[in-house]
Every structure is written in C-alpha cells, then in structure tokens.
C-alpha cells in the first residue's frame, strides 16, 4: 500500500492555514472538516503524544487530528484504512487514546472509509 502524501493550503479552520496529509483518506477527511459547520478549528500540528506499551516497549502514538466543535467539545480523530484496523498496534493505540481522552475531557473517534456513514465512530 502506497500512501499519498502532500499538503493542503488556504485552509480556513486550521490555525496554521495549511496542513500536511499522509494518505488519501487523511486528505479527504481534512476537506470534510473544512466544510463541517459544527467544526470551529482542527489541526494535525497539536503536539499530543500518547504513551502506550507494545510487546513490552514504551512507544508514543501521535494522533492524526485535534478537532474543536462549536459546542465546546474537543475530539482526537484517527484516520485508518480498514486493513490497519486489524493490527494489534492499532488496537493498543486506540485503547491508550481513549484513556487519554477520558482523562483530558476529550472524545476519541476513529475515521474509516468503510464506515456506514463514510466517516464515523468505530
């Protein structure tokens, strides 16, 4: 699988005006966030590092997006292609992210192209 990397510019809801993407799914989701009336701002440049343990080694998970909504809700969003959902590391990162979000008053959402509503909670 080859990732499509690039940069979107002239973004209105990113505090930086531009953001890099690491896959076609990330790019599509960035466009979706830009057009979502409920979203105040979003970024990939959030600096969040979530520790998790993988086969006894401490690792750090860097979530894809931090999204803020008009109602004050903040969420961490992770985009994943369907095959990657089966990986152990994906499961461990998700569990760590959910715990991190509970501790910080955020919500965690995994975004997949195969979701019933194209983008949704898994």
From TrEMBL:
Domain of life assignment: Bacteria
Domain TnsA endonuclease N-terminal: residue ranges: 37-112
Protein name: TnsA endonuclease N-terminal domain-containing protein
